[in-house]
Amino acid sequence: MLRMQDISKIYRTDLIETHALRDFSLRVGQGEFVAVSGPSGSGKTTFLTIAGLLENFDTGTYELDGRDVSRLTDDGRSRIRNEKIGFIFQGFNLIPDLDLFDNVDVPLRYRRMKADERRKRIESALDLVGLASRMKHLPSQLSGGQQQRVAIARAIAGDPALILADEPTGNLDSLMARQIMDLLEKINDMGTTIVLVTHDPELARRAQRNIHIVDGLVIDSPPYEARESQRAARAGTSPD
Amino acid sequence: MSTNIRPLLSALRRNPTGALLVAVQVAITLAVLVNAAWIVAQRIEKIEQPTGIDTRDTFEIDILGLSKRFEVAQAESEDLAYLRGLPGVVTATATLGTPLTLNGGDTDLARSPGTDAPSLPANFLEVGDQGLRALEVPLVAGRNFRAGEIRPAGKHTPISEVIITRSLARALFAHGNALGQAVYEDNNDPLTIIGITRDFMGPQLGAPAYNTVLLPEMPGEGGFYGLLVRARPGMRATVLREAKEHIGASHRHAVIAETMTLTSAKRQFEANNRNMAIFLTSVTALMVAVCCLGIFGLTTFNVSSRTRQIGTRRALGARKRDVVRHFMLENSLILAAGALPGAVLALAVGNWLTARYGLPRLDLAYLAGGIVVLWGTGLLAAWQPARRAAGIPPSVATRTI
Ligand SMILES: Nc1ncnc2c1ncn2[C@@H]1O[C@H](COP(=O)(O)OP(=O)(O)OP(=O)(O)O)[C@@H](O)[C@H]1O
Ligand SMILES: [Mg+2]
Q: Is residue A65 part of a domain?
């Protein structure tokens, strides 16, 4: 699904150069649920931003869903973000002036989808996150956890191959965080690959694979085999 | 494209203040723009239209009595006799009102008596039976005033004949011959139209340029009268110098208030119209600029306050041109919201100008043109901030909390 080889990313300001990622290599398989953790400033968000084609990298190669995406035009990147990737942000990033329906509609409109097809997808996505009855509400009328569920609905409505989530529970209390995690697991079970950046070891443990980033380097990426035993373990222990 | 209007509209409805203010500004600017352009067009037309009179050989001398002992009627006939006796003079008439200037009067003429009757504004000139000849204006129908029909200076006997221009005749009697018909100033006695002239410009007060009416009166009210003199070709300067000298010395209780050639009156007339056109154009351009500034300001504000939203839209798949289109569409909606009441306002102002100042009815092409111009400049004003919005990187979505 995702294959990064020797990626480096340097942020340059007038005074300093920050090597946010250096020789960063990572492979994520189809259908995996990967949790990424690491100290603050280690490069987690940078990795996610590059994985999500929100920013360019300096050197290395990146293949997404079997396609080299290193040298795409800006429009091409927009298109891949729109069709293949679903984003979940720490700050929810809902559009405050649009109701829930229209918020989930945003990426679908950029895909130029027919109106009835969009309606169907929006309704089923909001249904999945349990907010179908509040379609006409504004984000400000919802709790943080509910807002994040809308953001998840928005991320999955376009049926992406990959979901990237940057600390989606960072602004939520632990109960809501667990609900969000339940939802992500459910989505992963339906076949969507998920990469989740989180500080929370409890949540990270629930992923199939844990990746540790320190100083822009992947230092701990258990082999693929490990994920199978982890999945088995989760199926046995977590009641959901 | 059209499918994106609904969410834009609902977002605007939830946050309407700025958009509403700009829409109001658009409405007012449109009303001013359309009507100012219409007035400017009329002014330019006035400059370009022929005056219909001899301006090359004519001049006017205005006499002002300084005391009650000034015998206006006598002085008038002395002056006219002197002027007509000069070898360089074709003819001379006493007059009140100078063509092409603000010196004169205007009135309202109706086809029936009474203050409520629909009327047309007209500028008037008081002249004697030599008036048409002095102006070198030919009749196209009817006849000139007879000497006996001219009201003497200082008398208040009623007059009962008028001569009007062809334009005024057509405006008053659209479906028939105006000659021999009666017209009325308020409740006064009927004035019979005895002659119709080729179009010419009388004094330029409120009425349309060619709405001129000649009244058979020797002026003298308040000890004031004008002498309109037509010289033989090439003789004007000589005659003017002589006449000034002689008349200036011949009245013990009066002075020459002003002398003016109609050439300079015409130049002044053109300059006035040109200045009015320039003034209106500048004020309107300023208003359009301020309106554009409003659109620019609102869009700039929206772009900077929605940075994260724009970054998020980019992350979710918006291309740069989608972001530009978003702001163009939003401003189009605001412009439309302003253009609609603006068009109504423009028509209302146009009607008022027609009713009050006799301005020709607003041509709807000017309304359409005004909307196009304002739309174009409005979108142009939104273009730069919209481009800046498109430059907001998608990574803003992950980098701002
Ligand atoms: N736009 C930028 N310009 C300059 N430096 C940047 C920029 N974005 C990130 N960095 C730097 O890159 C490094 C990695 O940042 P990144 O945001 O990826 O860390 P992180 O692991 O997500 O941290 P946190 O857990 O605090 O979110 C940091 O040193 C950061 O200061
Ligand atoms: Mg981060």
A: no
- Boundaries of domain holding A96: 24-56+72-235
Tokens of A224: 């693929």
User: How many domains, chain A?
Assistant: 1
Report which protein residue has its CA nearest ligand 1's atom 7: A11
A5 occurs within a structural domain: no
Going by alpha carbons, the residue nearest to atom 17 of ligand 1 is A45
Spatial contact of B373 and B342, defined as CB atoms under 8 Å apart: no
Length of chain B: 401
Q: Which residues of B touch A81 (CB under 8 A)?
A: 315-317, 394
**CATH code for position A142:** 3.40.50.300
Chain A and chain B share a number of CB contacts under 8 A equal to: 88
CA of A42 to the centre of ligand 1 (A): 7
pTM > 0.95:
no
Backbone angles phi, psi at A35, to 5 degrees: -105, 135
On whether residue A240 sits in a domain, the answer given is: no
Contact B397 A111 (CB under 8 A): no
Angle, nearest 10°, between helix axes A115-128 and A100-110? 130
Q: Do B320 and A74 touch (CB under 8 A)?
A: yes
Mean pLDDT by 10 residues, chain B (401 residues): 74 89 96 96 90 95 92 93 95 94 90 83 93 95 94 87 95 90 88 96 89 93 93 95 94 92 94 93 96 96 94 96 95 95 97 84 95 96 96 91 63
The ligand minimizing its distance to the Cα of A38 is 1
CA distance A11 to A19: 7
The complex scores an ipTM of 0.91
Residue B54 in contact with residue B136, Cβ under 8 Å? yes
Query: What DSSP letter does each residue of A1-20 carry, written as one string?
Result: -EEEEEEEEEEE-SS-EEEE
B358 to chain A, minimum CA–CA distance in Å?
50
Please answer whether residues B76 and B137 qualify as being in contact, where contact means their C-beta atoms are separated by less than 8 angstroms.
Answer: no
> Are B53 and B125 in contact, with CB atoms under 8 Å apart?
no
User: What region, left, alpha or beta, does residue A119 occupy, with left being phi > 0 and alpha being psi -120 to 50 degrees?
Assistant: alpha
